[in-house]
Amino acid sequence: MKEAIYWKSLGDGRVQCVLCPHECIISEGKTGFCGVRKNVSGVLASLVWAKSVAASVDPIEKKPLFHFYPGTTAFSIATVGCNMRCRFCQNSDISQYPTQTGEITGRDMLPEDVVGSAISSGCESISYTYTEPTIYVEYVLDTAEIARGRGIKNTMITNGYISTDVIREKLSGLVDAANIDLKSFSDTFYKKLCSARLQGVLEAIRAYYEAGIWIEITTLLIPNENDSAEELKDIASFICSISPDIPWHISRYYPHYLYDSAPPTSVTKVEAARDIGLSQGLKYVYTGNVMGHIGENTFCHHCGAEIIKRQGFSVTQKAMRGNTCLHCNQTIPGRFQ
User: Fold this and answer.
1) Which of 3, 87, 236, 336 is the most buried (most CB within 10 A)?
2) Number of CB atoms found within 10 A of residue 203's CB
């Protein structure tokens, strides 16, 4: 347990957490929406600091981050908890654990232990992932600071539901890259299926970019929920309004958790969504959860040459010199060296 950041006392024993847009008002002995930030005698505490529920080595492509040191590995770490309630969550057993059980689980793993494990595993980066790193931000910051001093990069795989103040004041300068979910461009979708609001995510995406953090966006394409051509155009246009250089990953949905009534997304739908993204001006749009698809590969936006070939989460061929296309010398957006 550690005292949390981004909260204020309301003077009557209650506290207000201002870490994310929920801005929970929490009575003594209670936790916020995420289930891991608790009012302990008038002080907001993180219950998951240095409590790892998952730790493993992953290809950076699995995050997915395709324009951030492709072909390298990331030491992935997570605690329990999340500040959304996505009915289609792929990691609900750990993300929803505190709210489902009223308990905290995980093994002790201090920030220096995480960094040491990353180094001994030969990883170039640490990825705060699997659940929602926003709700264990104190753990992220303490680990990231040590990692940066040891030459290890830091990435967040996040739902984007975070106060923009946290991004500007804490994450900028410590976090190198983030993959941010933009689950839909509909506030109704966010309220109905995620127990959140769209606007907070949109503001965070822009704040991450303006903070100098490399960002990539992921949308899980769910049949009849967020797959209309109009909505996909809205998502692509929004991303493009920030920068056409931002990669957009469009992932195929498979039934999971509480939302298992829709069929898996057809490959044709994923391909059509990719075409929409490209037609709206985005330079790099990728297909996800479609093994062996050409949409996994990176093509130079200038000459059209295939410069990174992937098979699943593996880079099998690369035609780049540093951060430039080997064929035309065009600079490719991202972090490559």
Assistant:
1) 236
2) 16
Q: Where are the domains of the chain?
A: 2-46, 51-296
Q: Which amino acid is at 334?
A: G
**Backbone CA torsion sign across 96, 97, 103, 104:** negative
Digit-coded pLDDT (tens) for 251-262: 999 998 998 888
Q: Which amino acid is at 228?
A: S
> DSSP states of 201-224 as a string?
HHHHHHHHHHTT-EEEEEEEE-TT
Q: What is the pLDDT of residues 161-201, one digit of tens each?
A: 999 999 999 999 999 999 999 999 999 999 999 999 999 99
The answer to whether the pTM exceeds 0.90 is: yes
CA dist 282 and 323 (Å) reads 19
Max Cα-Cα span within the chain: 66
